[in-house]
Amino acid sequence: MLEVVELELPEPGPGEIRVRIVASGINPTDWKTRAGLANRVPDGFQIPHQDGAGVVDAVGNGVTGVDVGRRVWLYLAAFGNRFGTAAEYSVVPADRVIPLPDSASFDLGACLGVPALTAARCLGGNPEVLKGKNVLVAGGAGAVGHYAIELAKYAGARVVATVSSDEKQALAEAAGADLVVRYTDEDVAQQVLDFCGPVDRIVEVALGTNLDLDSAVLGAPATISTYAATGELTLPVGEFMRANTTVEFVLLYGLTPEQLADAVHWTSQALSADALTALPIIPFALDQVVEAQDLVEQAPVGKVVLRVAEG
């Protein structure tokens, strides 16, 4: 059961930082965890939400280089930790607290975390490998798709995005996609190939549904990186083998520390260069957390954020 309660102010232990939360971003994994679909059952109370932004309030023993009062964004706050960001204060391991530039709003900081880091990993984890490459982003108006477009453009790639509506097309274009097409068009593959030729990497939200399109536009070699595949999947093994195709399945919670650090570094670089933006914010108050999670389950256009406090 998810409810708003009063708890004692948590104290940071060794290697931990306490952050006064200003904004808390909500992801699909948050409502799925609440619904019991994530195979993670808390052993006591659990404050939800992985992503957020705020101000450093206190530091534990052994933490260096982080000053009280610094603006920060957080990622994986509730992963293996009792204190997520759906609260006035969160205590998290120091390596999950990242400086937030003055030019970035707390809303933007709360939108990063899971979506941006997933996008960075799906793009290969290193911006250097994308310069001059062709990237196809499926679902370019979703949170991961949004940051995949922006991170790929920051890295110097040519980006094509697929969407389903005028509203989503406008969002993908605002993120910087060089071409936006409707995935419902009969000639999507031809539009992509006519624009940029074969693609080098695909960031995929629905691999089973989009497999024919992906196969039609893939270069040789190329990579499909999917972060939301479900159910059974049949791959054209011979075709992919001949093309030396790589198919990656990405789940942020299972990345190695090195992979996660690379994704954080790329995201931080782009953020400092003002290359990242927030999707349209759908704000809720902290005491509306249940309603906010329920809305996320309905997959709205935009990003649902709890505005916990004034910055």
From TrEMBL:
Keywords: NADP. Pfam families: ADH_N, ADH_zinc_N. Residues 1-306 form the Enoyl reductase (ER) domain. One of its GO terms (molecular function) is oxidoreductase activity. It comes from the Bacteria. InterPro entries: ADH-like_C, ADH-like_N, ER, GroES-like_sf, NAD(P)-bd_dom_sf, Zinc-ADH_QOR/CCCR. This is NADPH:quinone reductase. It comes from Kribbella turkmenica.
